[in-house]
Amino acid sequence: MVKSTLKIGPIDRLVLFGGGPLMVAFAKEAIRRKIHTTLFAVKRHLEEALEGGSGPTLRAVLEQEKIPFFHSDDINRASELRSAVSSAAIGIGLGEAYTFSKETIALFQGRLFDFMTIRLPQYRGGAHFTWQILRKNRIGCWNIQVINEEMVPGVYDSGEILKSREYLLPRSAKIPSDYYEAAHEEGFKLFCEFLDEVQAGKEFGLAKLQENFSSYFPRLHTLRHGWIDWSWRCDEIETMIAAFDDPYPGTSTYLNGRRVFLKRCQADDSEGTFHPFMAGLIYRITDGAVFIAARDGALVVRMVSSEAGIDLIPTLKVGQRFFTPMKVLEEAMQYSAEYNAAGLVEATEEEK
Q: Which domains does the chain have, with CATH numbers?
């Protein structure tokens, strides 16, 4: 329900917070429109490759495109921020690692916003696309919300919504990189529409989140959480493998005592069911595909790699078994992933 309104523009400056290829697209579009643009990012975002582990880093792309940026792991202490903000500026966060203080929010005079690539408040938390795939949810959404002091990245989003864009993911979208591609396209459209409306002086209605629809799903870490339980049904394993596919390393299990990663999986029930004791057995290898027995069908996997990223399919043999020890599965279920500006926060011995 809309209870208040906000008039934002016109603007002459844009301050961006966060990282990723869509953030670069935002910056380039704003600069094309002759809006003075500056980006702030933490170290881990600046050093991340923009194309799922390959290609140039965000820092390299920003330097190449001559997009002004600053490295700051604590935005509330960034001396460059005050000079980047004018009385006709807005701030936009996209996947940012920052929690903004009352003083930082005040700099923007109510014009500091977060672009959220998920329905709210249904998917508070992190690892949005992985959770969506696990739940077989195919409704994409972008929300532009007002940033307030209560908001914590990857934990809690409570700002009022001033603009949304929902879309259906295509049937071809199966893995996170597919979801990212669709989200990138829709997010860029929303950004352009938003800038058009801001520059036209539109008055936006502000809607509070409907807390009776709220749900929370925590952040994940592929290497800690992405393990296959071979006691699951065939379709459950297929979904798990898809949920940690590109741009992530893949879902893990063991083969002959060494960790391996599986991707490009498809369930197949055309050859009937298998007894639970047969789960994980490789019973056929053909045309670069590995056929693995599961409880109620087969899994056809087209990518099996080592921790070093080496393709293992040419070395596999029928009769070998993929297996994940119960202790590993229990640790994965109990692990809580926390991140800071530098990346994953490792627990101390006392916390373990």
A: 2-217 (3.40.50.170), 222-336 (3.10.25.10)
